[in-house]
């Protein structure tokens, strides 16, 4: 591969999988937080966020 040593290849090869895994993890985590926040807002009496005052 591009006539590079195998050590160089294995140094760079795992990074796309690392970033994809991190992105997938953060997507799931933040999606759950957003859904919980939306449920909290919907369950308030006036529909306003208790954080906003």
- Mean pLDDT comes to 85
- Helix amount, in percent? 55-70%
| Rg of Cα set | 21 Å
Distance between the termini: 59 Å
The profile of the biggest β sheet is:
none
- Assembly context of the chains: single chain
Instruction: Give the count of helical stretches.
Output: 2
Structural class determined from secondary elements: mainly alpha
Tell me what portion of residues adopts beta-strand conformation: under 5%
Runs with pLDDT <50, length 5+? Answer: none
Number of strands: 0
How would you spell out the order of helices and strands? Answer: HH
Outline type: rod-shaped
Transmembrane segments: 12-30
Keywords: Membrane, Transmembrane, Transmembrane helix
List keywords for this structure.
single chain; about 55 residues; mainly alpha; 2 helices; rod-shaped; transmembrane helix; transmembrane; membrane
Describe the structure.
With 53 residues, this protein is mostly helical. Helices cover 68% and strands 0% of the residues. It contains two helices and no strands. It has helices spanning 6-12, 15-43. The longest helix is centred in the middle third of the chain and has 29 residues, at 15-43. The protein is rod-shaped. The model has no long low-confidence stretch (mean pLDDT 85).
């Amino acid at each position: 591969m591009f006539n590079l040593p195998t050590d160089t290849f294995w140094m760079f090869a795992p990074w796309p999988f690392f970033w994809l895994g991190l992105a997938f993890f953060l997507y799931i985590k933040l999606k759950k937080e957003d859904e919980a926040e939306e449920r909290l807002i919907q369950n308030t009496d006036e529909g306003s966020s208790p954080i906003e005052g």
